[in-house]
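Re: that chain you flagged

S.,

Sorry for the slow reply, it's been a week of failed gels. I finally had a moment to sit down with the sequence you sent. For the record, here it is as I used it:
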Amino acid sequence: MCLAPEVVRGDDAATLAKLIDRHVNARLDSEGLTRVPQADDAEFLRRAFLDLHGVVPSGERAAKFLRSHDPEKRAQLIEELLASPRFGKHFGDVWRGRLISPLANEQRIQTERFADWLANRFNKNDGWDRIAFDLLTATGKIDENPAVTYLIEGRYPLSVTDLTDLSSRYFLGIRLNCAQCHDHPFVEWKRQDYWRMAAFFAPIQTPGRPKVVYLAGVRDDPKITLASLKDADAIEGLQLQPPIFLGGQEFKAGGDKTHRVALAEWITSQANPYFSRAMVNRTWWHFFGRGIVNPVDDMHAGNPPSHSELLDQLSQRFADSGFDLKLLCRAIASSRTYQQTSRSGKQADSEAKLFARMSIKVLTPEQLYDSLVAILGPPAKGSGIDIRLGARQEFCQFFAGDGDPDPTRYERGIPHLLRLMNSPQFAGRNVAALVLRIAPPNRSADEVVEQLFLAILARRPTTAEQDLVQDKLRDSDALPQTVYRELAWALLMSSEFSLNH
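Prediction finished late last night. Pasting the structure tokens below so you have them in one place:
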């Protein structure tokens, strides 16, 4: 459905939020679907914290927000979350997981520095174009320039194929790897297109006897080409040409500009038809659990957007803003579309696909771990943790999926549930300490139950839940502290806690 162009005037978040809602509403009207109601304050609060900070709010923060009658409190909360250093930390963590292999155990310290580098850039609100440019063109030693981590794995550079696949997926929203061995069967990408882009990464490779770039640093050597590399057999039968950008624009060598600098300038250009759309679509996926184009990294003519004009206009505004990620996040979080409930109506599947309701997402391993720490405190020492990894990475690696898992699909099985239920990191004294803090002798049972619900689920208990605990206290021979510990553990093990809804 075509909408009047005047709705996109202005580049403030409120204007963009209205743009989002207008396009989504128009599509719902055309499909005969009705929006679900707005999320209540508790649902919105927890969702916003998880999406913008990667952790649940404290019980005190939840109580304060729920008490407030300020009509602007949601907008104020969004500003508070965006201004906090925790915003950059969360998005740095997210992008570290996307850009660095989770199996790179020997790089643990380096990947933490990389996440810190990203966090600093996101908190300063450097444009996404500048961040991507610095990643693609990074040089030097990893301990001097953490951005180099993007280009290596372990001790050596990533291969040209790995870098081509990684860069095309996350900076262009394209699965170009499908054209590595043959012309793409469904879209316009040819095998020649793949290798012409791969050629941009050849100069940082180490043919012959590989040098340890971890020690020597990443450098560009213009004498190294695809033909000179050991894996040149992969391009047998191709007519090798100088690097060419996707779409056919030729790269003209000259001066001191390296191949990677030329590629980064093309990728991050406002004129690039892929870069802005890829980040808008992936950011939308981060908040909604599915992209405007889904799968999120498979954007092509044969996989049309659910809201094509919305994607076009958001992408243009994002580029015009200097690729301002905080503006994009603020606009999405401020929209009525984002602030609606996840409770399904009569046509649940259609509602989720067209954003008539919020999808329920599974907490990422990082969100799950950080939320447990926020509620229970740091894990107990001596819990059988691999000291080479550290408690957080070991936990997250155990719960991690492959690639970009569908955030709306619960794929964890019995081992994961048993790990949570019998966790040596968080069981026992951690739960007891929580109850001891929340249930001093002078606090009534109703108050204790309310504080436990606020601390763990960021909401107040229902009357039925209060009555259930009171019945347990009255009918049980156990001490109240024991009942409270059982309640806390039941809440922590609930699906309500492990989901972002």
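What I noticed first: Strands lie at 152-153, 156-157, 361-362, 499-500.

Talk soon,
D.
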